[in-house]
Amino acid sequence: MSRKQIHFGAHFPGVNNTTVWSDPQAGSQTDFASFVHFAQNAERGLMDFVFLAEGLRLREHRGVIHDLDVVGRPDTFTVLNAIAAVTTHLGLAGTINTTFNEPYELAKQFASLDHLSGGRAAWNMVTTSDAFTGENFRRGGFLDRAHRYERAAEVVAVTRSLWDSRGEPVEHHGRQFDVSGRFPLPPGPQGHPVLIQAGDSAEGRDFAAATADAIFTLHGTLEAGQAFYADVKGRLPRHGRSEQDLKVLPGVTFVLGDTDAEAQDTADHIRRQQVSPPTAIAFLEQIWGRDLSGYDPDGPLPDVEPDVDNVSITLGRVRHAKDPRAVAQEWRDFAAAGGGLSIRQIVIEKTGRQSFIGSPKTVADQMDLFVQSNACDGFILVPHLTPGGLDRFVTDVVPELQDRGSYRTAYPGPTLRDHLGLRHPHAPLTAQESA
Amino acid sequence: MSPFTEARMHLAVELKGAGRHPAAAQWAGLDPASLLTPQHYVSLTRAAARRGLDLALFPDTFVAGEPVLDAVAIAARVAPVVPGIGLVPTATVTHTEPFHLSKAIATLDIVSGGQAGWEPTVSRTPAEAALFGRKPAAAPDVLWREAADTVDVVVRLWDSWDDDAVIRDAATGRYVDRDKLHYVDFTGEFFSVKGPSITPRPPQGHPLVVLRADEPEALPVAARWADVVRIAAPDLDAAGVARERVRAAVAGAGRDPDDVTVLLDVEVHLAADAHRARADVAELDARAALEPSSVRVTGTATDLADLLGRAVRLGAADGVTFVPLVLPADLGAIADQAVPLLAGRGLFRTGRSGGSLRSRFGLGRPVNSFAPSTVGGAQS
């Protein structure tokens, strides 16, 4: 093969301010028709998989349910099984939490998805240490942060031994789980569903290098991507694995236009949609840890300092790890350098994650550059509109990449492991299964 | 309601792998791998839908035995491609999370366009408990008290979003009206759940609740929560007694018995003549014996239609759940021969009925239990 091939995951728009609901083209986040439209477009674009995120408690801000962003999601497994009915090749990736599920049930659910989809299941494994979410579950409480990877590793070990058991009894006794008994299903067409892992700490990178098939990252620049890529791929040999065994897939946004200038105008418009005036204040409150509802979003930053003790003003979302006072100073410096930017202007500039902006040709060039120069193996695309956010990418960018020889013109096989170029290391396909 | 009046007789069918009989796949020469494909379940459900059956029931269990796919997964896989029939997976509640179950069934209702139900059941054995390693097996009274709490919290979670909670109000920048989202704040003997659900209220409001009421500990749960009650009985007289017992319990729980449909399990193996059918079952039992779990018809499609006719006269049930011993063969005979006979005798409506699954059982869309009118003016 001449050129390195690009892989794409299609992230169904999430429940945060990246997803624009105020646009006239914004449809339902929960109607099945939206999932059908989105998934069928991803498949039209020969993408590797559709990706569903998950959050198991509605976010709260200042003690009440956050009401400014899209909210509400169907059940991950149920939607993926239903999408399997309206697609033929597209991989089906679901984010499923190991803290609030038991491995035996997860093993059965993922094996069922893999059987019922003909080998297209993928698991984005997350493990939280979140007492807030725990209030919705029997387990309640939370997992000590230090035990997150211990639990994740045990879940992988137990589920894989169940998938491989072929009717033989399984016994597992570990610090997190005691599981014994028989598993009711033979291995699915993929043997093991594709395992996706997100996590940037050294521990997270090692866990991915040891066990995952793909890693979902957030490294934005070419240089940061290259450093990350070299680091995680370099960890693989220690676990007896090769470079092909772990795909590095950063989550990225994109904005397209007929020209680069038009795309930039659209991108600016989208940022204003993503950061409404009340959303700007809510972001500011997350940094400041204070009620700032009295401030004018079009006015200057507050003079008061962040309340560094109030770290839980927003619950149910991934937190920024930085020191709030340092962030506040950075934002003040940025506002001054910009000639006195407003709160909303600053939030638009400082919280944006627009990765690729330009004409289809420009975006294809940039993406191809990232992949060919080993900053990643592909991307998980995060569109800002439901359900049509992928449509133009599929129509206009995919052919550009195909013209460059960097993207497939047909699916290489029936299973997601085939699409991703992964081996079936633990349970090779039988002739019948691959037929 | 009087049982088996023309418009009200309800027919369900259990779609379990190769059928209820454990030797069915081997006897019929089915490739076991075919039972794990979506095509198998799509084709069975389509056959049932084509003749207007009300419910396809997908059993599930954590008891070791024949291969069994997750039943909610099967129903979800079938839903987008087989319209017009209720899809009712079994969901075992003893070792699973009520929060996950609630959104899974709500989502089945979304992807099926309002055709979802569920059949909660319990896990009894130490072997099932050992698969989870969280708690020991428990006695039936404990199991069913927990099941009742589970159904309760699942329904509350369905109601935790008002139907009009999403407002998309550009003027204030609000996507959702948080006053229309409700903490369920459930605290019981077995678990607590804060809420609200992450999934909006399903299209039917409350997907259909199907419960068995064979054992005394299950009866009060069915009386309080079931829209459809499944019973098993050795004969039609016993079925009539069981039906009356269910109706009395429903009334005792403060509900109208006519809002609850009692379905009698009828095991079925059909052949061209009764001799052949009995010989088949003898061959099946020689491979692996299966004691009848309820009324069984081993005979012809006419025999089956006759039994249902007798059931009508005796008031033995409001309908039946066909339990085919061999799939897909027995479903084919039921759908293509027995159901047309029933329709011809005026015992079953002809053609499909549209609308939601609840509407097919004469049930309206329930008022949200968090709606202001039902919380006694407690709203601010």
TrEMBL record, chain A:
Keywords on this record? Answer: Flavoprotein, FMN, Monooxygenase, Oxidoreductase
Which Gene3D superfamilies does its entry note? Luciferase-like domain (3.20.20.30)
Boundaries of every Luciferase-like domain copy:
23-372
* Region named Disordered: 405-435
Question: Could you confirm whether the keyword Flavoprotein appears in this record?
Answer: yes
InterPro entries to which the protein is assigned, alphabetical: Diverse_substr_monoxygenases, Luciferase-like_dom, Luciferase-like_sf, NTA_MOA
- One Pfam match, given by its short name, reads Bac_luciferase
Q: Which residues form a coiled coil?
A: none
Protein family per UniProt: Belongs to the NtaA/SnaA/DszA monooxygenase family.
* Protein name (database record): LLM class flavin-dependent oxidoreductase
From TrEMBL, chain B:
One Pfam family per UniProt: Bac_luciferase
The answer to whether keyword Ligase applies is no
Residues forming the Luciferase-like domain are 34-284
Instruction: Report the InterPro entries cross-referenced here.
Output: Diverse_substr_monoxygenases, Luciferase-like_dom, Luciferase-like_sf, NTA_MOA
Q: Is Oxidoreductase among the key words of this record?
A: yes
Taxonomy, superkingdom: Bacteria
Q: Which keywords describe this protein according to UniProt? A: Flavoprotein, FMN, Monooxygenase, Oxidoreductase
Protein name per UniProt: LLM class flavin-dependent oxidoreductase
Organism placement in taxonomy: Bacteria, Bacillati, Actinomycetota, Actinomycetes, Pseudonocardiales
